[in-house]
């Protein structure tokens, strides 16, 4: 196992007290905190400069969200493992974390013991989600992502536009195709995603609820 003082960490949170508390806990437990940030842009800069072992990021930060930071850092091919710390328990946030292949997702209510457990699991190349999340929710999200991967390129484009609450006629006009073609794609998407209610409003509702993950397709 890697010694704690060899684990370099960048932490980011726009709440000063949370940032300080996390910093103090990590230092007291012999971790090597190489950078702190209070907004997403600072976090991204520190990750790119230090290429830390771990980045612990809040999701809701000014300028760039934690998800934005992770997406942009991954485009730069850093070796950092990413763990988000958030108050958000909603399924759409879990979905986006899964879609971005984030290594860990913790809640701010979790104990420092669980943070350490998450760090250890992540360093062993495992994905760790807070114990507060129900297994059924995590499995449902994974299944939704698996189904979406089977959509064709055209179907993914249509689904993204549906998630933006655009009508079939608006989508047809934007993509220079017929409304009939859009409706055919919608029908195929409903079948592939196994949406129970087969009317078009059901797809609109499903797409809106999953809009954060659809954005990453």
TrEMBL record:
Keywords: DNA-binding, Phosphoprotein, Transcription, Transcription regulation. The keyword Plastid does not apply. Residues 8-123 form the Response regulatory domain. Coiled coil: none annotated. InterPro entries: CheY-like_superfamily, NreC/VraR/RcsB-like_REC, Sig_transdc_resp-reg_C-effctor, Sig_transdc_resp-reg_receiver, Tscrpt_reg_LuxR_C, WalR-like. The keyword DNA-binding applies. Gene3D superfamilies: 3.40.50.2300. The modification 4-aspartylphosphate is found at residue 58. Residues 144-209 form the HTH luxR-type domain. This is Response regulator transcription factor. It comes from Aequorivita marisscotiae.
């Amino acid at each position: 196992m890697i010694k704690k003082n060899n684990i370099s960490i960048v932490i980011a949170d726009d709440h000063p007290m949370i940032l300080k508390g996390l910093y103090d806990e990590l230092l007291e437990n012999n971790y090597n905190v190489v950078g702190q940030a209070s907004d997403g842009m600072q976090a991204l800069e520190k990750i790119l400069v230090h290429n830390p072992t771990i980045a612990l990021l809040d999701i809701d930060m000014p300028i760039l969200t934690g998800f934005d930071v992770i997406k942009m850092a991954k485009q730069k091919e850093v070796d950092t493992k990413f763990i988000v710390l958030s108050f958000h328990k909603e399924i759409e946030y879990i979905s986006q974390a899964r879609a971005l292949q984030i290594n860990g997702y913790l809640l701010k209510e979790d104990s420092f013991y669980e943070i350490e457990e998450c760090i250890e699991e992540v360093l062993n190349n495992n994905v760790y989600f807070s114990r507060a999340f129900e297994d059924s929710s995590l499995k449902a999200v994974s299944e939704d992502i698996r189904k979406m991967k089977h959509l064709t390129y055209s179907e993914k484009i249509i689904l993204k536009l549906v998630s933006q609450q655009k009508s079939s006629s608006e989508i047809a006009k934007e993509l220079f195709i017929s409304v009939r073609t859009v409706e055919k794609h919608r029908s195929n998407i409903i079948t592939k995603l196994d949406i129970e209610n087969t009317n078009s409003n059901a797809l609109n509702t499903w797409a809106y609820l999953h809009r954060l993950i659809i954005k990453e397709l």
